[in-house]
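Dear colleagues,

As part of the handover before I leave the project, I'm documenting each prediction I ran so the next person doesn't have to rerun anything. This entry is a single chain, and its sequence is reproduced below.
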Amino acid sequence: MVDTNDTKDASNLLSQELGDLEQLNPIKPGGYSAKRLSAGSGATLVQIAFDADVELADHKAGTPIIVQVLDGEVDFSVGDETHHLSYGGIIRLEAGVVHAVYAEKPARILITFINV
């Protein structure tokens, strides 16, 4: 249990609504923009904002990740499988798994890098 005197150091409000995230990380015309929201001992949170018709080509993460769609829709490819994820869609990957993300229309995703 956290001592109430230490609550300020034990919590970090990142956003109260999607509009806060839009202001922190505006969509970059013709591309994507990544913004680290938080880094702590257990996880790092990164938001990526995609403009329409933008792909983040094959890449991999050094830690397990959880990806959640915050706004819009994305095609999330892992190997030969493509998952169409819309608002609220979530996928988890182990470290080192090659994947790609494509946004036909503007979209936002939140990536949680799990520090192991």
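The mean pLDDT is 91. Strands lie at 32-39, 43-50, 54-59, 65-71, 73-78, 81-86, 90-93, 99-103, 107-114.

All the best with the project,
I.
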